[in-house]
């Protein structure tokens, strides 16, 4: 949620504001790298893509099709803008503060790490390093042991639905999945795909279409996510019901369970997004 006044349609002014804010100091060392990467990527977009970014800034993200391939760019822009607003707020120290104000400032301070961890990381196949004049292309998603022959390439959850078309539209419009209608398969279905996730929708009736929690199982599917903060913002921004909110990263360090959030799909299924932690 942004608090400053931003232009309605001029992204150049937005980046002027970002540059001015970073120049004041107090930001992470890689904040300028993040700005340069975003600026470069927006410069290569058609006018419609840039306008999507302005819509994000002005709270109209729900009007953008979730299937848009550049939503991660808009989410990263919002992450940087929110971060800079927080830094500016913390830099303005009043002469006296109430206990509530002290608590608020502490919470904001603790949330900065959540924004900063994305600075310098790849985005849409590019990464910016300090001292460079342009971003470098990176290969995303390379796996360890990439030379090993994989006999099992992927898997898909199977959701039985009373109306598979209604469910497919929800996952396309709200969650950015792409739908393939496979009516000529042995089991006709709609296949939904996004990133490394696949879901198969089949026609069903009765109890098989009910959420798993009706039968004592909390979640209908787990999604393991390296950066749940960005996905949480996307899901919430698209108006999807959040059943269990994502705890702050620092607060989660003292938790005995994994950091996660849970959202509800159009059929009432509870999907758990759990933070993926690489094992050494």
Topology:
Layout: H1 11-23, H2 31-43, H3 47-57, H4 71-91, H5 99-116, E1 126-127, E2 136-137, E3 157-161, H6 164-175, E4 178-182, E5 189-194, E6 197-203, E7 221-225, H7 228-237, E8 242-244, H8 249-252, E9 260-264, E10 270-275
Parallel strand pairs: 3-6, 7-10
Antiparallel strand pairs: 1-2, 4-5, 5-6, 8-9, 9-10
Helix pairs in contact: 1-2, 2-4, 3-4, 4-5
Proportion of helical residues: 25-40%
Give the total of beta strands. Answer: 10
Order of helices and strands: HHHHHEEEHEEEEHEHEE
Basic shape = globular
List low-pLDDT spans: 142-150
Characterize the largest beta sheet: strand count, sense, and whether it forms a barrel.
Answer: 4 strands, mixed
Q: Tally the helices: what do you get?
A: 8
N- to C-terminal distance: 36 Å
Radius of gyration: 21 Å
Strand percent estimate: 15-25%
What's the arrangement of strands in the largest beta sheet? 3-6-5-4
């Amino acid at each position: 949620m942004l608090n400053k006044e931003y232009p309605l349609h001029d992204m150049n002014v937005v980046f002027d504001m970002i540059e001015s804010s970073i120049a004041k100091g107090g930001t992470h060392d890689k904040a300028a790298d993040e700005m340069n990467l975003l600026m470069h990527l927006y410069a290569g977009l058609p006018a419609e893509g840039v306008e999507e970014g302005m819509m994000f800034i002005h709270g109209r993200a729900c009007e953008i099709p979730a299937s848009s391939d550049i939503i991660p760019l808009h989410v990263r822009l919002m992450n940087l803008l929110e971060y800079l607003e927080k830094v500016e707020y913390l830099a303005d120290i009043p002469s006296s503060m109430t206990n509530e104000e002290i608590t608020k400032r502490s919470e904001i301070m603790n949330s900065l790490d959540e924004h900063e961890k994305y600075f310098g990381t790849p985005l849409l196949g590019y990464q910016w390093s300090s001292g460079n004049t342009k971003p470098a292309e990176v290969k995303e998603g390379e796996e360890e042991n990439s030379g090993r022959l994989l006999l099992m390439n992927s898997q898909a959850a199977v959701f039985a639905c009373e109306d598979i078309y209604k469910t497919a539209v929800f996952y396309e419009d709200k969650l950015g999945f792409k739908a393939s209608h496979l009516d000529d398969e042995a089991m006709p279905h709609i296949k939904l795909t996004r990133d490394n996730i696949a879901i198969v929708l089949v026609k069903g009736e009765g109890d098989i279409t009910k959420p798993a929690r009706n039968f004592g199982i909390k979640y209908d599917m787990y999604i393991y996510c390296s950066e749940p903060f960005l996905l949480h913002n996307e899901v919430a921004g698209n108006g999807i019901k959040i059943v269990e909110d994502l705890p702050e990263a620092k607060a989660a360090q003292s938790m005995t369970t994994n950091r996660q959030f849970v959202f509800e799909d159009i059929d009432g299924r509870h999907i758990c997004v759990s933070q993926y932690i690489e094992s050494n």
